[in-house]
Amino acid sequence: MYPKQQQMSNRLSQESSPYLLQHANNPVDWFPWGIEALEKARVENKLILVSVGYSACHWCHVMEHESFEDQAVADIMNEHFVCIKVDREERPDIDQIYMMAVQLMTGRGGWPLNCVCLPDQRPIYGGTYFRKDDWKNVLLNLAEFWQQKPEEAKGYADRLTKGIEDSEKLNLSDEEVQYSTDDLKDIFNPWKQTFDLSEGGHNRAPKFPMPNNWLFMLRYAHLFKDDTAHIITKLTLEKMAFGGIYDHIGGGFARYSVDGYWHVPHFEKMLYDNAQLLSLYSQAYQYSNEELYKQVVFETIAWIKREMTSPEGGFYSALDADSEGVEGKFYTFTKAELDSILGNDAQLFCIYYNVTEEGNWEEEHTNVLIRKDDDDFLAKEIGISAEELKEVIASCKSRVFNYREKRIRPGLDNKVLASWNGLMIKGLTDAYRAFGEAEFLDIAIANANFIKNKLMTPQGGLQRVYKRSENRQAHQIAFLDDYAFVIDAFIGLYEATFEEKWLQEARKLNEYALQNFYDAGTGMLYYTSQADEELIARKHEILDNVIPASNSAMALNLYKLGYFFDRFDYLDQARQMLQNVFPHIKTYGSGYSNWAILLMDEIFGIFEIAITGEEAEKKRLELEKTFIPNKILLGGSTGTLPLLEDKFSNQTKIFVCKDKTCQLPVTEVSEALKQLV
User: Fold this and answer.
1) Do 109 and 102 form a contact (C-beta atoms < 8 A)?
2) Given this model, what pLDDT does residue 468 score?
3) Structural element, H or E, at residue 294
4) What's the confidence (pLDDT) of residue 363?
5) pLDDT tens figures, 331-368
6) Are 43 and 92 in contact (CB under 8 A)?
7) CA distance between the termini of the chain
8) What is the mean pLDDT of residues 132-148?
9) Which residues contact 97 (CB under 8 A, 6 or more apart)?
10) pLDDT in tens, 397-433
11) CA-CA-CA-CA torsion sign (435, 440, 442, 448)
12) What pTM was estimated for this model as a whole?
């Protein structure tokens, strides 16, 4: 982090967000988003400057250091604007609106996000990172424009706000739709033209992991027996795990690689990426039993447990890209350093991770650790056994880890978000289901209890943020993604434990979301609750991105809960939501991958597998060794779910049902698998 100038604290010093607190000593007269700032803009007829970022954002730090810590820049901002700082992770609703505005104006977006608005919050200009001199010129020109041509500014705001309101807008579809496997092929065939068949992922740079895309590909490969989907998914997972985007010493993935080779990461490590990647690698292990996938999962969970878990059991949000003001300094090494740490083993370690004297990226003599060959191939090339190679590398990694631990650490964003914690519970339960490691389930249950105790409101809803901080209160507001991912997490916990209380919690949160977020005009769900403050637009979130859209996640939740509770109304709504989106999926498979997973379930159908009796847990673990993506699991020794009615006895039995029809119960998993046709 850049050193701060000594300044009087501004209003952000009373906030709980780590990102806002980073700006508390800026000479800019920052306000948090709220009534005080908005009323000041209205009364004084001043333009509003909304500046959005997050604590692990490298270019947010750069712009702060260059501009927001500069007194001359601050003087311009303070004189002409009401300046509002927003943490996009605490207030994604605000970020969503002004990001869309900037994308409409410039064709691109990102963070830092800077948007200038009229006193009524409607945007007229925006962009991302600005150099200091450019920023000063932009601010002065906008201030003059508002003084001299206010009606022109208002006219532009009218048109831009209309564009924001119309973006991602769907109508309620009342056409009867018959889906077929051809629809899935029509999604996959144009999508596969974007694959990078050399390096994995999509053929572009930068490269983002996009875990949900590859979850769809896993399912497509399995259900269609499709070689292309299988090969590109396997290649992508291997290249990411070998690449510099993966922290080979401490576990966990960076947010993306700046190049097309997964080599040089943007070093920030986000909870939401790693949560979804746990699910992806765990399910991929069920599909193909690759030892590399297991290693990634176990190392990533070790990192989560060690560095990202609060004393209360919540998961922190992110680790910064920077330490000591330098991006990636914590994670990179010179060859000389490694020689001094590893002695005689350094040569082998440097071959394994492609470390050179000159360095393997833009920083002179500095190396990002990256693998290019698997253990068997490299061991043969070097002339040792694969077992010996693995032993030496494991020993080296331990020594390098201990050395790295003495470095100044990247900044930690220690706020706890309901939505991202839900994603991590799901990742942990998927890992438990794939590997049977009891500790993974224990961590997930501890976090679920944390959510129940710390993030649930007396009214039965959620709050988004938990931040333990003296005299500072985190916002009580929550958004649709918080409900969507916590509901999914609780469904996953039920399937991993057969403890019905988790499914009941999921159902209650689902009912709360339907009551407070439902849009009768479209059949979709708004991103904000009807009880939340009114912004210039109330949006739906439809497109799947680095995180699946909250509407697609809710549609899948409704679909699963509809089967668990025999609720036709849930199933009908999920199908209505899918029907609304269906015309768009084929045009952009990557942006609708979670919707495509729901479409796949609708076309291939859902297996309802009930395992009852004293050995239900043992049989469940055995069944989970097989990749069965289109299923729900239920059972135990007791239960009240409709699908479990009349299925309990002293003998352990497995029931395979589909389309309201159950086959004869069997006692062995091998026999049940034969019924999955």
Assistant:
1) yes
2) 66
3) helix 291-307
4) 82
5) 999 999 999 999 999 999 999 999 999 999 888 899 99
6) no
7) 56
8) 94
9) 164, 535, 536, 537, 539
10) 999 999 999 999 999 999 999 999 999 999 999 999 9
11) negative
12) 0.93
Q: Is the alpha carbon torsion for 243, 249, 254, 258 positive or negative?
A: negative
Per DSSP bridges, beta strands 631-636 and 607-612 are: parallel
And the tokens for 557?
């939740």
Q: What are phi and psi of 575, to 5 degrees?
A: -70, -35
Q: Where are the beta strands (DSSP E) in 389-495?
A: 412-413, 416-417, 465-466
Q: Among 128, 126, 130, which residue's Cα sits nearest to residue 118?
A: 126
- pLDDT of residue 3 exceeding 50, the answer is no
Cα–Cα distance for residue pair 505/512, rounded to 1 Å? 11
ω into residue 206 within 30 of 0, thus cis? yes
pLDDT at 473 over 70: no
Are the CB atoms for 26 and 74 separated by under 8 Å? Answer: yes
Among positive and negative, which fits the CA dihedral 658, 663, 666, 672? negative
Q: CA-CA distance, 82 to 306, in Å (whole number)?
A: 41
Which residues pair with residue 416 across a beta bridge? 466
The residues, any chain, with a CB within 8 Å of residue 618's CB and separated by 6 or more, are 652
Categorize the per-residue pLDDT at 677 as very low, low, confident or very high, splitting at 50, 70 and 90.
confident
CA-CA distance, 154 to 652, in Å (whole number)? 70
